Amino acid sequence: MKKVIDILAQKGSYVVSVSPDSKIISALQIMQEKNIGSVVVLDQGKYVGILTERDYARKVVLLDKNSSDTSVAEIMTTDLPLIDRTTSLESCMVIMSEKNIRYLPVVEEGELMGIISINDLIRSTIKKHLETIEHLKNYIHA
């Protein structure tokens, strides 16, 4: 059974981050430049939350806030479940599905080790299925 550590070993633990006092417009510009849907929020190097496109749409656009005047801390998500490197990918899928979320912070001993996204889980599942298909083809042709 694959675990979070397997995904982190492939993609690495690097995360794009902003500080809580950053303005939303700056975070959005970073997200646009990097072609990503979220940024991790770090306060003095410690994980405090995540800012997602969903946060922006629901807490800025719909509430008619100004992206240039509003800080990331005002709208970031802070209550995501935390996982560690030993969490199974199946458990991650269950958590994401039950809570209708797209990201899980990987934290151990208070340190952020990385972020697992729903796309990471999809890629891993596809890879696993393709490997199974290849094994079955080899078995049939042997």
Which key features would you list for this structure?
elongated; two-stranded antiparallel ribbon; 6 helices; 5 strands; single chain; three-stranded mixed β-sheet
The SSE order reads HEHEEHHHEEH
CATH third-tier fold name: CBS-domain
Overall structural domain count: 1
Radius of gyration: 18 Å
Summed up, the helix count is 6
Number of strands: 5
Looking at CATH, the homologous superfamily is CBS-domain
CATH architecture: Roll
Percent of residues in helices comes to 40-55%
Report on this model:
The chain has helices at 4-11, 24-34, 53-61, 72-75, 89-99, 118-141; strands spanning 17-18, 38-43, 46-52, 103-108, 111-117. It is an alpha+beta fold and 142 residues long. The chain has a single domain (4-141), classed as CBS-domain (Roll). Strands 1-2-3 form a three-stranded mixed beta sheet. A two-stranded antiparallel sheet has the order 4-5. Strand 4 and strand 5 form a beta hairpin. The longest helix is centred in the C-terminal third of the chain and has 24 residues, at 118-141. The mean pLDDT is 93.
